[in-house]
Amino acid sequence: MTAFFHPNALVESPHIGDRTRVWAFAHILPGARIGSDCNICDGVFVENDVHVGDRVTVKIGVQLWDGITLEDDVFVGPNVTFTNDLHPRSRQYPTQFLTTVVRKGASIGGNATILPGITIGAGAMIGAGSVVTRDVPPGAVVVGNPAHIRGYVNTPSVVSDGGPVEPIDSAPDTTPPSRVKGVKFVRLTRAIDLRGSLVAGDVGGDVPFQPQRFFAVHDVPSAEVRGAHAHRECQQFLVCLSGSVHAIVDDGTNREEYVLDSPDRALYMPRMTWGTQYRYSPDAILLVLASLPYDNSDYIRDYDTFLAEVTG
Fold it and tell me: Chain centroid to CA 243: how far?
């Protein structure tokens, strides 16, 4: 088994995996490492401190500069621009170039620009022409300039039906059970009269734990992502008191997106659930009840670590 090099390609590196194909006018410097079954298309330039995994596709007109890592099964579309220096000057070089990592299975659309020092999460999708200025969570779909999250791949969306507006709303909940282990979309009691509206929930019933802490998230710019972590032991109960917010829940096997847009709809997240909140409306106030006091060691902030722990 050997790699294929087009006669018009310049391949100086000995570190090219089996069945990898390098096409015309590509130039790969001696220090670069490229895995097996890759497709390096016409006009691609690869510097020395570059690591490319297996089954990676790099389309026409892409330059991979020092400090860039593409993990297995990554797709890089035509004319994607990577950068590795935030303050470039002619003939002035940093002591070390910033590291950019594209995690396993992510795809980058044509003509996108990736700023240096960024990690694009596993399975993420970068829209064509996007300018990515910050880390992208695993599985996120980002578009625009600057890029912002529009959704998540392979993530069904669950939207509250709101229920009938009655003086005492006790209608049965018709929301289907979550596919994410232990997660529940909870319908709280709602009372409405001329004096206003009231929403109530019972601790030990609606809230299946004794809260030890609470916090409220508000004034979040719509492009910002909150959460993006799991807890080893802590359980959480989310209620959007005003406005709306989209909440992603993930147990390592299944992922769903819930739209919290009414204070009588809440989301229960058991321990070892990866949670992400995004698309906050300008008036959103998200109340979170937690089963334990704050403990930094209870947080899992890296998705690969979460997957390893939840499956182990």
Answer: 23
- The domain spanning residue 122 has which CATH number? 2.160.10.10
Taking a C-beta distance cutoff of 8 angstroms, is the pair 53, 33 a contact?
A: no
94: confidence class by pLDDT, cuts 50, 70, 90: confident
- Is position 246 annotated as part of the catalytic site? no
Q: Which of 6, 51, 218, 229 is catalytic?
A: 229
CB atoms within 10 A of CB 47: 18
pLDDT at 173: 56
Contact (CB, 8 A) for 273 and 183:
yes
Whats the size of the chain, residue-wise? 312
- Peptide bond connecting 211 to the previous residue in cis, omega within 30 degrees of 0: no
Which range marks the domain in which residue 146 is found?
A: 1-153
Strand partners, 81: 63, 113
- DSSP category for residue 203: B
**Whole-prediction pTM:** 0.82
Same-domain check for residues 112 and 141: yes
Supply 208's token pair: 């299946």
